[in-house]
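Quick start: read one record
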Amino acid sequence: MRVLRWLLVALIGAMLPGAVAAETYPSRPIKLVVPFPPGGPNDIIARVVAHYTIGICSAGAIAISASLVEKVPYDSTKDLTAITLVATVPELLVVPAGLNVNSFAELVAMVNAKPGQLNFASTGPGSMPHLAGELLKINGKLNIVHVPYRGAAPAVNDLLGGQVQMMFADIPVLLPHVQAGKLKALAIASKARAPSLPDVRTLGELGLANVDAENWYGMIGPAKMPADIVAKLNAVTLEALKSPDVVQKLSTQGANLIGDKPEQFAAFIKTEIAKWAKVVEASGAKQQQQ
């Protein structure tokens, strides 16, 4: 996913020693851990060395896993230090171009006419696309069947081929196919429309305000980081997020840049853990710890 690639290039550049040479910290290169596989949300190779380790986290790893995985080896609120919420990316609902629906209302009508016969793809059990679909099922009272895949690529491939009838995913994953006319964008699961798809209405506008599913990415560090270092990393990240190049590239892909204070991000994480725990319970999704 190009969103994190552009973002991390900017942040890494801003955090290198030369960018803050006059400061006490960092005195060595920062190790930026990106816990995503190649070809997934990000393909930046983790930078090596430094006393402190900084990571890019996502909603799945920090908020959803708390209730999804049976034995999580860490506590997101105690074992990590929140630095800043970098960006949010709304989930986009799409259908294949060959499906005979052209609006969300028509999709609902088709589902109601064929209960239990239409499938929605996801990138795996408990993923944001899965839980967005579960929110749609619950709030829209729709009888649709979840089909989990091992990642975005195979899910999108089957969606394009018509093997599944709908899917939620981060906007950047689906946008090229929407622009190419291979997928139809029916709705966005966020409070506001996306600048990259201004004509696509939110599910709130369509009567389902509770179907609010945004993936998000933030900067985190290990527990008990010194407050002055947290503040410095926060300031440097926020400065990087003001770069016109970063703003332009991320905004056109559907990302909303945030850049908040550490205490705001920490409170946000707690809210997200509670929010998604309810959806995970309702969906019955569970994963064994690998």
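Residues 90-189 form a domain with the D-Maltodextrin-Binding Protein; domain 2 fold (CATH 3.40.190.10).
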